[in-house]
From TrEMBL:
InterPro entries: FluC. This is Fluoride-specific ion channel FluC. PANTHER family: FLUORIDE EXPORT PROTEIN 1-RELATED (PTHR28259), FLUORIDE-SPECIFIC ION CHANNEL FLUC 2 (PTHR28259:SF16). The gene is fluC. The chain crosses the membrane at residues 31-52, 64-81, 93-113.
Amino acid sequence: MQYLYVFVGGALGALLRFVFSQLNHGQGFPIGTFIANLAGAFFMGLVSVLVIQTFKSNPLLKKGITTGFLGALTTFSTFQFELVKMFEHQQYILLFVYAISSYILGLAVCYIGSKAGGALSHE
């Protein structure tokens, strides 16, 4: 049964990821990947804390949301590929801004999400 939850969550995450990818154009800042990864980081923090506190009786839901939906939504491999392409096109400033902002903001929004999840689970 866990496979069904992961499958459905993954399908929905992949569809949303595709929608975000439509925002990427040319060799500029890959805003679609950036948004998908930051949204995924925030919701991973939020959902992980909420699921631990709220859905202890339904671990399949956690698998469907985290492994399925968020796993398909976020894309570390595309992020790395975009950095390589920026390097190959000698877009060093863009590469640096994209890499640093993705890492730092990703950590920040994941932290904020986990704190929000903790606050919501105590209400």
